[in-house]
Amino acid sequence: MYTSELTKYSPRTEIANTSRILVVEDEELIREMLVVALEEEGYGVVTASDGRTAIEYLKNFEPNSTEAVFDLVILDLMLPQINGLDICRLLRHQGNPIPILMVSAKGSETDRVLGLEVGADDYLTKPFSMRELVARCRALLRRQRLSTLPVVPVLHYKEVTLNAQECRVMVRGQEVNLSPKEFRLLELFMSYARRVWSREQLLDQVWGPDFVGDSKTVDVHIRWLREKLEQDPSRPEYIVTVRGFGYRFG
Ligand code: CA
Fold it and tell me: Which CATH class, in words, describes the domain spanning 3-148?
């Protein structure tokens, strides 16, 4: 079942925010061995025993989506319904960049080449040792992490430009100096233009949940930020007060 299998995320791995691996394998014994070996390494593991379920799990692959996103797929070649090669082809066709480790009992060079040709990142022939498998997973995840180092976008709104990579803010063509807190506040605002934030939410996001102090801190920083951004800080066009709620950007 789709939903019951998803509950296999253990709280431990959620807190540790470790990589999540989807194991697609129809042979129960192998599947269970994979789960045990991977969970021992601290990975969050979800399983699927046929091709259709696997595709269902993998259809949400937006990097910012919070549900059913995996960092790696271990994909058996011979599966009921839709085989591993077709799944692989489909995922790549959809533009899903998830690393795929294909495993197969068929050990011929042709299978290996075919697997890699349709977009698998690595290929392992059964029987394999769990140590070998875990090592391959680790390598793939590491490689993925490097290639997906976030490209921090440059945020624009009207005449304000924030370059997070360079920690620079330009207002009407002039660079302005912001304190780290002001910068973080503006970055948050610009990342979610028009979203209304309460003072508590802003404290939480910018100062962190451990911050001891009251929400006046937010008001003070907003005032400083307005002085740097707005042409007329008493009639702000960027950081707008939403009476009874908090603040909004734009
Ligand atoms: Ca199989």
Answer: alpha beta
